[in-house]
């Protein structure tokens, strides 16, 4: 990889139409480098292979396709714009979602009946029926939806393979997914070296400090970076807070999943919610933040933000889910105070 490729991103020199093995960077480094998803990248989806589903290629394919399909349902607010953050689940709501999805598919490469079924599942709060469509239709359809949700033309599937798995099983499944889901498949992880039938490509990504969790730690088996400006589709607390804040005019001007870089020599990082003018950051912490290393890393980030004039508000997942109005009231008070005092810098 050239210096220009490294600057553009680890994904920039990789093929989008075949299977390759990645070497030179860990899966966590790859994931953190695309959080949030950069504008020049394809829709990048990570799948952590469970050894229990990798005894046969067909079982692994089924697990991956089911994961992609569930992710496509979670991402409905991003690809079915009319129903963004929709909360109704009545028969009329489900029917309206189907009609909207079919209308969307009419002018796109999407298969109408399939996107209609996923839209209805999302509105109903259910997972789609796996036997309603062939596995080939589900594979190609869900990969296409994920690309559309992130406003990309293609999807790249990163298979994270643990050590000790049968290379032939991984290789056969990877080739099937590449051919039928019509997506790039990039194999990484300790077991990736067992797939010798594929070319190996060296990639580089910035190191991730010990204790820092990535989307791979938050969402499994399917993980994918958020889109800058949107709550993560797989994070119910982020979506819940987004909807709660969207009801208030004073919350205008906020940004979700935005990268902050405090100086030329500091490492950029992503925050959950940001009021840039008021210099307020809101973070929503899952259970992974309780780990000692992650807790310490959070404090380092908070200190860096505070020394640059930012106010940091932290809520747990439970606080946002159980009492979003209280979280919103706390945020409103902070925003009001900052605005009343003028430029916090």
Automatic annotation (TrEMBL):
Pfam families documented for this protein: DUF559 (PF04480)
Record-linked InterPro entries: DUF559 (IPR007569), Endonuclease_DUF559_bact (IPR047216), Restrct_endonuc-II-like (IPR011335)
Domain (DUF559): residue spans on this chain: 237-335
Protein name: DUF559 domain-containing protein
């Amino acid at each position: 990889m050239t210096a220009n490729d490294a600057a553009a991103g680890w994904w920039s020199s990789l093929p989008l139409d075949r299977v390759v093995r990645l070497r030179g960077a860990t899966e966590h480094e790859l994931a953190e480098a695309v959080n949030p998803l950069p504008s020049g990248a394809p829709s990048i989806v990570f799948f952590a292979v469970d050894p229990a589903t990798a005894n046969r290629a067909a079982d692994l394919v089924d697990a991956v396709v089911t994961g992609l399909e569930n992710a496509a349902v979670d991402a409905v607010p991003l690809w079915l714009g009319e129903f963004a953050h929709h909360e109704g689940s009545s028969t009329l709501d489900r029917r309206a979602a189907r009609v909207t999805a079919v209308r969307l598919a009419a002018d796109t490469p999407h298969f109408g009946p399939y996107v209609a079924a996923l839209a209805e599942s999302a509105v109903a709060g259910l997972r789609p029926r796996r036997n309603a469509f062939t596995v080939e239709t589900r594979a190609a359809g869900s990969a296409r939806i994920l690309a559309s949700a992130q406003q990309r033309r293609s999807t790249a599937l990163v298979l994270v393979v643990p050590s000790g798995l049968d290379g032939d099983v991984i290789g056969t499944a990877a080739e099937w997914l590449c051919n039928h889901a019509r997506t790039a498949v990039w194999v990484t992880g300790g077991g990736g070296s067992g797939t010798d039938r594929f070319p190996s490509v060296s990639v580089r990504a910035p190191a991730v400090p010990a204790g820092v969790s990535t989307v791979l730690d938050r969402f499994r088996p399917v993980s994918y970076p958020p889109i800058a400006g949107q709550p993560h589709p797989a994070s119910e607390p982020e979506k819940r807070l987004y909807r709660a804040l969207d009801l208030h005019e004073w919350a205008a001007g906020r940004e979700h999943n935005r990268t902050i870089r405090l100086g030329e020599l500091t490492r950029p990082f992503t925050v959950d919610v940001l009021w840039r003018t008021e210099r307020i950051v809101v973070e929503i912490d899952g259970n992974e933040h309780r780990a000692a290393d992650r807790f310490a890393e959070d404090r380092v980030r908070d200190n860096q933000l505070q020394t640059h004039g930012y106010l940091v508000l932290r809520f747990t997942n439970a606080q946002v889910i159980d009492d979003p109005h209280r979280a919103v009231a706390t945020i409103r008070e902070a925003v009001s105070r900052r605005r009343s005092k003028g430029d916090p810098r």
